[in-house]
């Protein structure tokens, strides 16, 4: 993957192809189209004087709010400038000599490991296996020597959620073998009633769980995420190692209140259930596409028609091509679930593309 190849690069794409950025509809970034909660905007508007003061370097209130939401000790929590900062932070702390990555997967795991010279062993998730890991991964771990494993639940870019029993077996295996298991739950808030693995923290020392607040609460411009682990000594060391004030004052204050946005959370789940089903059923009607059943707020598919990305860009629609993900090629794509009219516009454009050949 070259450079920082992520979704949401509206300005860069617009400049490269000579298009007005304000006319592009962005399906490449998995951000909640409901926008930030109204209370978030009001809080920032009413807290402008916060720019004149340093935020609490320990972020005590933010850590307490996160710990309260997950019923864990605040010593188990470290907040960060998005989950990405914490990917790098936990990697620097662990200093693994050998790490296993499931492919395709989020690029920053690999980049963080490369920064410290870790030897990376790729474990390919294949189309034949539905791009899902299973107990064969444990067989592989028993034959190789690794210090840590990264896995995303749901995975990015496939949007697939691994089997719960498999995940339990993986947690137990890594705990027995002393392998650090970093589980990225950045999209799990989009799955109602799924608490993820945080309830297991008290019984583990090798489990590190990443969460993002950016996607669900539509605050990519603020950047906010957190890492939780039963290894409280490790969390303390990560706090001691990182640069001070990595979270701005607005993000810290917003993070303290987001867990109480119950109406917003419910509205998001209601929107997603409706619009994800619409996109899934509509995309599945195209014989040119192979679409995998989604569990998060985006869909992953294979397209037989060449250069769908560039074709849809002519319709002012920006989708995410996956050719830079290890293990995928230019025929794989990811699209975010957006508002009703935007999703309808995407389907109408694809109908025109496939009908006209």
Structural account:
By secondary structure, the protein is an alpha/beta fold. It folds into 2 domains: about 10-30 and about 260-355, Aspartate Aminotransferase, domain 1; about 50-260, Aspartate Aminotransferase, domain 2, CATH 3.40.640. It is about 40% helix and about 15% strand. It contains 12 helices and 13 strands. The strands form 3 sheets. Strands 2-8-7-6-5-3-4 form a 7-stranded mixed sheet, sandwiched between helices.
What is the topological layout?
Elements: H1 10-17, E1 25-26, H2 38-45, H3 60-70, E2 77-80, H4 82-94, E3 98-103, H5 107-115, E4 119-124, H6 136-143, E5 148-152, H7 164-177, E6 180-184, E7 207-212, E8 225-229, H8 232-241, H9 249-257, H10 262-283, E9 289-291, E10 298-303, H11 308-313, E11 317-318, E12 320-321, E13 332-336, H12 340-356
Helix pairs in contact: 3-9, 4-5, 4-8, 10-12
Distance between the termini: 30 Å
For the record, the CATH architecture of the largest domain stands as: 3-Layer(aba) Sandwich
Low-confidence stretches: none
Shape estimate = globular
**CATH fold naming of the largest domain:** Aspartate Aminotransferase, domain 2
Task: State the order of secondary-structure elements, H for helix, E for strand.
Answer: HEHHEHEHEHEHEEEHHHEEHEEEH
CATH superfamily of the largest domain: Type I PLP-dependent aspartate aminotransferase-like (Major domain)
Total domain units: 2
CATH class type of the largest domain:
Alpha Beta
Name the structural class: alpha/beta
- Fraction of helical residues: 25-40%
Q: Tally of extended strands?
A: 13
Give the amount of beta strand, in percent. 15-25%
């Amino acid at each position: 993957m070259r450079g920082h190849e992520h979704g949401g690069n509206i300005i860069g794409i617009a400049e490269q192809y000579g298009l007005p950025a304000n006319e592009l509809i962005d399906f490449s970034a998995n951000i909640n189209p409901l926008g930030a909660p109204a209370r978030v905007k009001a809080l920032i508007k009413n807290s402008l004087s916060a720019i004149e003061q340093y935020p609490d370097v320990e972020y005590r209130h933010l850590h307490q709010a996160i710990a309260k939401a997950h019923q864990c000790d605040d010593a188990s929590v470290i907040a960060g400038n998005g989950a990405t900062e914490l990917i790098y932070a936990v990697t620097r702390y662990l200093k693994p000599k050998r790490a296993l990555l499931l492919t395709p997967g989020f690029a920053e795991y690999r980049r963080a490991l490369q920064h410290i010279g870790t030897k990376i062993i790729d474990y390919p998730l294949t189309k034949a296996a539905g791009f899902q890991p299973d107990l064969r991964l444990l067989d592989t771990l028993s034959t190789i020597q690794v210090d840590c494993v990264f896995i995303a639940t749901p995975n990015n870019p496939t949007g697939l959620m691994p089997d719960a029993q498999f995940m339990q077996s993986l947690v137990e295996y890594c705990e027995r073998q002393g392998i650090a298991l970093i589980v990225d739950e950045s999209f799990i808030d989009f799955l109602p009633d799924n608490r993820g693995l945080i309830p297991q923290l008290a019984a583990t020392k090798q489990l590190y769980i990443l969460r993002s607040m950016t996607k669900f609460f539509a605050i990519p411009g603020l950047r906010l995420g957190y890492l939780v682990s039963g290894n409280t000594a490790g969390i303390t060391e990560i706090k001691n190692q990182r640069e001070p004030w990595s979270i701005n004052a607005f993000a810290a204050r917003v993070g303290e209140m987001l867990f109480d946005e119950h109406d917003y959370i419910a509205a998001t789940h209601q929107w997603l259930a409706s619009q994800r089903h619409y996109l899934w059923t509509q995309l599945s009607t195209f014989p040119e596409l192979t679409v995998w059943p989604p569990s998060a707020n985006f869909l992953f598919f294979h397209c037989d028609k060449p250069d769908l990305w560039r074709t849809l860009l002519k319709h002012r629609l920006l989708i995410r091509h996956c050719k830079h993900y290890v293990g995928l090629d230019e025929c794989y794509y990811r699209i975010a679930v957006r508002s009703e009219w935007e999703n309808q516009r995407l389907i109408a454009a694809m109908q025109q593309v496939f009908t006209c050949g």
